[in-house]
Amino acid sequence: MKAAAEFVVSAAGAGDFPRDRLPEVALVGRSNVGKSSLINALVKRTIARTSAAPGKTRLANYYRVQPAAGRPFYLVDLPGYGYARGVRAGGARPAGEDAAGFRRLAEEFFDPRRRGAAEGGAGKGMAALLLVDARHPGLEADLAAWEWLQAQPVPAAVVATKVDKLTRAERARHSRQLDSLFDVPVRLVSVRTGEGLEELWKLIVRLPSPPATAA
Ligand code: GDP
Question: Is 192 in the pocket of ligand 1 (CB under 6 A)?
Answer without folding.
Answer: yes
